[in-house]
Amino acid sequence: MTDAYASSVIGAPADRVWQRIRDFNGLPSWHPAIAESRIESGAPADQIGCVRAFRLRDDGVIREKLLGLSDYDFSVTYSILESPMGVTNYVATLKLTPITDGDRSFAEWSAEFDCPPEREAELVAQIGDGVFQAGFDALKREFG
Amino acid sequence: MVRVRRSTVLDAPIDAVWRILRDFNGHDRWHPAVDRSTLDGGRRTDQIGAVRNFALTSGERVREVLLARSDREHRLCYAIVDSDLALQDYVAELSLKPVTDGDRTFWSWKSRFRAPPGKEGALARLVAEGVYEAGFEGLRNLLGRSPEPEPPRPAVTGTIAGEAMIIDRHGGPEELHPASIEVPPPGPGQVRIRQTAIGVNFIDVYCRIGHFDLLTPPGAPGMEAAGVVIDVGTDVRHLTVGQRVAYACPPVGAYATVRTLAAALVVPLPDGIDDKTAAAGLLKGMTAEFLLHRVHLLKRGEIALIHAPAGGVGRLLCQWAAHLGGRVIGATTSEAKARVARAAGAWDVILPAELSLEEQVMALTRGHGADVIFDAVGRDTFGHSVAALATCGHLVSFGQASGDIGLYDIGSLASKSATISRPNFAHYTDTPEKVAAITGHLFDVLDRRILDVEIGQRFALRDAAAAHRALEGRRTIGSTILIPEAAAGGGG
Question: Is B93 on the interface with A (CB under 8 A)?
Fold first, then answer.
């Protein structure tokens, strides 16, 4: 089992940032790597078990299943069903925590997955920097 | 039930913050509202169940018990046992998370408690602002506020006059004499240090005698000291003027009041480790670290025979080996030293007797022998150590206090499939990365009180010859340090 983890500080209260990221179908509106997204079978985007299928800007397709969504904890958990990355048992959580000292929020994005040992370093970098940190950078541009 | 939660982001890496916060009894060092804190009942600061007993600057007394601590999760939980405040059933959790975006630290501090009716609001405010927010500010102050604008380095001045204890030729302790020295300003990659405490090690004696070619006269012996950086050359990033530092490595020359040397060899000292402890324990502690973790990876349950267990390195070896789960046997020469060894964790101690060392070891271990032997005595003990080894045992010979071992017939080791190592401190500490790894590990166990450095003897720097006589005469217990006169006057 391999872990990827990135965390950042976003310059807006957690409830405001949460409005942006709680929409499981909303990645294209804020994450720079995602071109378009739809929820399969017309399910609501906040229904646990729904599957989002999205296309990356570089044309790969990823299908992910919503495992948990908490407006109380500001956290969303999902797994990858299908992707070009070559990972298995991939489960990720994106979570916000209010920073009481100033109107900011602490954002954490973590994943656990299996992959061939020789690809571990490359995938940890690709996911940690290319997906998680790139998402934080976009949120920081939007919220400061 | 009242709930309070506060959080902040500190501009420091998580390890730097956790090093301070993990010390349950160390909050009087950084929290402005905590006057002085002590541990009740002789427990260690990292023991679950430890009770810290402290007064607030406003006068109230509080006792709190450590409920849980995790170095992996960077988390502490504790509860109030009794206090002059009206907080009831107060349980708090303090936790850190890394902010990977910028190498900062997210700090969350929360609690729940009951309060007398009508007092909830005031107490919640007291906890949130007087304790948590004030604590954030206190730690921020301790860490130093702004690493960004680097203060202009003071112009490097010219040479500084100092004093050193030097030898003009190899020989006895009487060869050590004071001499005036001119200490040059630091060049690129160097720092100049005003030394406050200097460690004395047996290797200094070897240098003085000429046994090692580390010291070519005229020159000063000494491998280890602590002090304050007084100026910094160009290309030095990890040290600043005024910083407390220490080093333990060649080149020799530590027996001096002021010294200029390569910054890469110098490590910053954590707040919890004072100058004298660093000077007394750095080289010996680093030696114990690589002997037990790099030369021989000591495993739980192994029988470790440690010669000279009351000496500087020996005592630290006993403490650390016992902590690692080794069954430690000390071999020493007097009942006083045996007591020191037992207090340091030795399970049994061997004294000179009718029976030889190996016969005593075999009797204690029911014929098994020692799985590993740490022997810095040399000529007088080497043969006995080989005989005391278990089958496939490992003899680590790291010194020869009693004289040269001489030639040894390697064929005789086949009777036990024995391994012999002859490690040299210099090879384990010849890059900044190795030094950082070893000192990082060492400072951690010192901080957790797994090791404690006992300073048995202090001499003025000018009395270095007397320090050498005591060491060679096997009359020392624990570590020996030299104090430069200026530092001795100032209480350094």
Answer: no
